[in-house]
């Protein structure tokens, strides 16, 4: 009987060194890759003085920093405080939610700077970065935070880091296909961030399905204070979403318009969320989960179209619909997904990101297809859709078709990616007796009857925080 | 004995549908009105490229978005996180405070965009909105959040929505009288937001007076964590108040000056709040309620004059006085108002908004009356008070008189408005036996002896959240 | 036996009046000094219209307000919410941490505006202030907040105000020596803010050493919610640190670069903090104290060099090292400092600010010494180090030497200042029997055996909040 204990100790020692090793080696890799590839872009480089003269700029205020830095900081708050605290509603996973979100985002932004840099900012062998790259890196990591919401409480930090590496890579590829090859617009990332991130996470959680998880449901309850902490996350996401959707839009009217559209959509979404939350609950009480999540669906759903001439009332309509869809999703769809499709969606990202993301992609396609020179003005029309060079002759309806194709591509990438990650292989072995990944492996006989599954759920659920 | 129960069920069904119906119908109304009236302003419209050429602007950075968006986001945080969390200090109303504040503000900003738009941004049949409209809508809703502070824990969400509809409407009328007819300055809204909002709320709470409320005083206590949550609200209001008072000032020096004056006033206010809180308490301990509220009075009281040449030491003096007035108010005036005037001011808005708002109006009138071309410069003088067109010949002392008149108008509008709303009629019936509004109706015999009052207090107090 | 009680009452009365008197008298002094000295700078004055014409500026957007105000607000949040909430991790000092931090910062910024104004913005007998002065005042107070972290739970509010007065004064002198006399660069304050503030605080806590403090260790524990509150502080410091390090950099590329370098350093720091926290703990669990603090060390350590051409990978390396140094410090150095050197460092500022600050100074010196015209460009080189006028002929290696001298000066000023403050003299007498300062005085026989020390620890520990 000594042996298992011995093995357990060996496993503990192994575990103790694995997370540090992964973190250190990856960070060393980042330093080497940054050393080889990453340099300051022209607006952040000390040669800017000369650059300014060449570009005939008379003032430092023309530096992109002043156009985008306030929005960048708002996005930054959304990623770290918004997503982090939104997930603190479970009384047992508060630390894990905020802490692991912090870890994966801090790693993810570095890898995203590289991946997105190779695709979009690569000039004469170097990636030249500026504030827009920082925003895009935060966006990319946002899609990982979304996926994290589906698997919250079911993974170890190492699994999260592995997932981040995979997902950021695929995100950059998908983004390249959409923005560069299909030449579509998606400033607020309805497709690239929300649809992709959510379906990626849902595929991963499907693979991580553990039938016995319901036994630990008592840990999933919320308490008064955890709900107030979660409201901090909700409100920061809600307030700063106009910055999110406008952060990388074209200077001037496009940024301005994207903020207004998002503001309107979010406002309408709150009203329909409250309406349906009250209507679908017994006694007409409001459900805090709906208030915390469904109120944000309006921001997701104008992600693609916010910088277009969606108009304020168009935004209200989108928000109106999404508040309903998202709340109904929490009440009817989440239980269905778990019981029938074995998809345990801890934070309900299917309702907050997946469905609204799809709606956002569709709204974007329609808005693009309906664009006319009359509405946008001659120059505004070309600027809004970047119909220059190769794309000079593209018509709005063709653009709408490509936008729709972007949704399909994002979905396929998400399903394929989520399946490929295969987190169980990288996971913490539940008992220390089998090699990592064994117990959770799909198809292995006795998976659900493994005697140590329950212990595993507990140790993983509480994470290492 | 079956009947009352049956009635109760009927009432429950009725209640269950009322909030959803109000939310949905009103949101539909918003969509229709936005569809008919609201369009993007020139700086948010895709025609901006042509507009720029007409206005001879060489850079996108001249778009009003870049002048005001960072301040807008700070104001946005104040309304949703600041006011929301400031009211979480009561251990039982934390959800209600944050959640209902969220609901009323999200509805209010839509109605405010319309009301203020008709008065100020109406051109050829359309309301043209930009970032300044978003700030003004947030401002308008701020006055509703203030009023909410007086009635916290005493109303249902429907009553709050009714109050929001009324108050936003009256706010816009009052603002139109002050800014357009009287041509007075009130950038930070000492009169339009704080004086109006606070006396409106105090009038409403006077009408909602329930003598038995003291029986539930055990629910009004604060606990350690609720006080820390409230400090989040306090600090965000305190930090971002310079943005609040400068958000809609003229570009350039006026915005800059407003931020500095507010920063100074708030800093001084903290010192006198601490001094008087310690002095007036037994054992010299500090009262968290004073720290949470009275420290903010300095921001309210420079609302009108912040963009004027109040000077940093003038701001310190205003903050110095307001910290004292507000703290003394919490210690002596709030109990007096409740016991003698039957005004139950849950959050003490009389001390934080009403009195400092009045002081702010008076300071503004004096600062305006004392203005000289010497202090402001020839051009600066005209720009600061917009002494152009019809008002070309107005003198500082006349301006001071009009500023003072603005205080009186705001007070009258608040009293009249608060009385007209008559929330009890819209309220939740306490027992389900009488029609809504019955038990709480002023002057009805037996009001305080209604056998179900106590149950009512409980059910309302806990709200629907 | 009546007498001690009587004395106790006398002392209570005395205490009750002392804090209010200090607050009121000091605020009156501020008003008088502001009245004599402080006026609006040209960009905040109503004469700006004329100023603009003289400076040949065509747009209000050229006002410094628009270059710096968003960063100012981020810094403001760091000082009041960041530092305030970071210190709430102790379950008993949550109020004290946030409340006293609020008080000292609100007083400190006023005194800092004066002190720094006399040294840097004094023109024809007046201190002319603008947004940059507000940022600098916040920076100065930041160093006091850091020092507060070392003595948290050991001082009364009056002692904190005394310390603030001393430290702000010395900060301004030290800053003047470094920036003006030695002509060194320190935009993010690795030396002036962090090294100076931390060693000042550590010297003060050494003097306040109380051997019996360990008896009250049960009060120092953290609880679940206090750790989540502390994470709010951590995340806001982490997210806004790029704004901190870039807030007063030169317009244009320098601000842009400082933000990018800080972003990179902080990201790397999180990974090594997690690695070493997991490695050095039993069972490989993460320690929340490390996550809350060591993750920020990367921001401190690029404070001096962020605006230089440190390059993104250079920043990653600095962050990499600092995460390790800081975490190891928490595990091994903090206990050593307490047991051997009698330095009770409540929040571990030696690991978060002192060591990373020193590293930051050294990295700055090396980066400056390694600067070449090739890397910076001819104009960029002169602009980056302000090699104009008297300093036209200074070479990078000489600049590096001066930078290194700045570290030494900051250290000496901190040790001298911390010793001179001698807080115990100003303190609350632990028992009311001896005059203030008696029991805690260094070298007094029977210091540790004073019968009332324990009561003192309790009453002081809980503070007046």
From TrEMBL, chains A, B, C:
One of its GO terms (biological process) is ammonium homeostasis. Residues 63-420 form the Ammonium transporter AmtB-like domain. InterPro entries: Ammonium/urea_transptr, NH4_transpt_AmtB-like_dom, RhesusRHD. It is a multi-pass membrane protein. Gene3D superfamilies: Ammonium transporter AmtB like domains. GO terms for cellular component: apical plasma membrane; basolateral plasma membrane. It holds the Pfam family Ammonium_transp. The keyword Membrane applies. Signal peptide: none annotated. It is found in: Cell membrane. Keywords: Ammonia transport, Cell membrane, Glycoprotein, Membrane, Transmembrane, Transmembrane helix, Transport. GO terms for molecular function: ammonium channel activity. The keyword Zinc-finger does not apply. The chain crosses the membrane at residues 21-40, 65-86, 93-114, 134-153, 160-179, 191-209, 221-240, 260-280, 313-333, 402-425. PANTHER family: AMMONIUM TRANSPORTER, AMMONIUM TRANSPORTER RH TYPE C. Belongs to the ammonium transporter (TC 2.A.49) family. Rh subfamily. Homotrimer. This is Rh family C glycoprotein.
